Amino acid sequence: MEIRDGWGRFELxxxxxxxxxxxxxxxxxxxxxxxxxxxxxxxxxxxxxxxxGLAFQGGLPFEYSAVTVERDRLVLARYARxxxxxxxxxxxxxxxxxxxxELRVDHSNGRVRGKLWQGSEEPGDWQxxxxxxxxxxxxxxxxxxxxxxxxxxxxxxxRYRLTVPxxxxxxxxxxxxxxxxxxxxxxxxxxxVRVRAASSIPARIQFEWSHRRHxxxxxTPDQDAPSPPYTAAAVLESxxxxxxxxxxxxxxxxxxxxxxxxxxxxxxxxSSTPLVLVAASCAQMWGKPSCVALTNAREAAPAPVRALxxxxxxxxxNNRFRSCYLSAQDFFADRFTRFLxxxxxxALRQTVGASFTLDDHDYGPKNNASAGDVDAWAIELWNRxxxxxxxxxxxxxxxxxxxxxxxxxRRYSDPPERSADAKISRLGAKQFAWMESIMNRSxxxxxxxxxxxxxxxxxxxxxxxxxxWKQEYKRAMSLFHSVQLxxxxxxxxxxxxxxxxxxxxxxxxxxxxxxxxxxVEFICSGLEARTWSPARANDPTLDPTRSVMGTxxxxxxxxxxxxxxxxxxxLRAIAARPKPPGSPDLFPPLVFPFRPGG
Length: 598
What we know:
mainly beta, Jelly Rolls, Purple Acid Phosphatase, chain A, domain 2, 3 domains, 7-stranded antiparallel beta sheet, 11% helix, 39% strand
């Protein structure tokens, strides 16, 4: 944005042909809130398919209403987290490139009225006149909806005027998301946990926490968040492993108006109850319903869920279908924030820690990306949005004798190769050595490997360890089987491939003693998927009784506690929508011994 020759200019470069429809770009007027008002805009545009307008009853960051000029129509729409709903339309002057127009929108007295004209003579009649409740206070401002032809566009504004009855109110910040990371256990039984909160506007953020439910105890120093995505993080410590309760206090940097998040709980795993983990990935967001599978999983779990691992494709910022308008940091920040604000996700995270890995559609412009395709700004952005213990893209965490690791399959990856002799890596030398060291040194009895990329086959693509990184597939599976030969189970939970299926991987070294227990891989993707990627025909590792395509869902992992007599691991595919007559399971749960060969 800039000011030139008395005109304020908002410029957009050409958009992606894959962009989602009607993506809004609000320019909000802070601390001028009111329940009603009249706005007047003098503007011109270099591209007549650009859809400029005036917003009102705004609730940042996603919910507001607006009247936009869309070629020869005035369009009244309500905007929300995952799209917009058109409520009314009216004929108006035909928008032409570089011609000056006047737009007036009156939101008052129980109506919304709008008119568009050229010249100094304002018409007396309203072109748009709709009954509308005017008792909701909110911000006003200019809204730009991307040009429908996705070509270069500039909105130039000569004059903007807002008139309201009475006085203005301050804009109260909204808190679009908060995240508790996964606890880091200490030797004395205490734990550290990283937490993060976001604001809808420039803000000062503080974290309040206590060991008593919904009681303020200690607080962290204030942190200023002056630029998007307006986030702050802190590390909190629980004394002797007690429950930790925290919330975020967010104050506007411009007015001091304040908002409080709901209380969040970080609850240690009880040694007498099953450990329940949830794995999900690949959620379409724009124009799609909220992710009800997250609530289904919580309701189906045999005990409280203790961790959610989200394995990439957070709303598909980059994609062949309904992507962001631009592959750029601010557009990705908007998409990630909208994804994290999903109401089912928000409700689950209130009592469940979350860890994340990014995948190809989060890293920049290319599908099935490798390291050379990753945009550095995507990494920098995501490091200001997650609550993982590291910024490396991978991390580990423990629950008693269960040691979990997340893997990044893109940031350090060589491109795939058909040759079985190619000395290439999907994880990179440092990440693989980190995984190997943990598995060889940890005193855990079970390892859960969360990998966004799959190890098993994937039809019509090399984007899997088994066929795209053949040497590393053998090396990893040999490591996993060696661990199992020491009596410790290894389970792989993967995503990306858009299906829910079970694979049993044999030992690449054909050690006779390893034949007693395969390495189980559970592919559980996607949470709200659009396309599907089954195994290759005649893949001998596939369990044909546990393979579902064309239905969205996620994975639930339940691990018996050490006190159980015959300890088992259960893998369940939970549907995004319950199947009649109500069971959420998409195939029979797989139950196997906690110890390999047991």
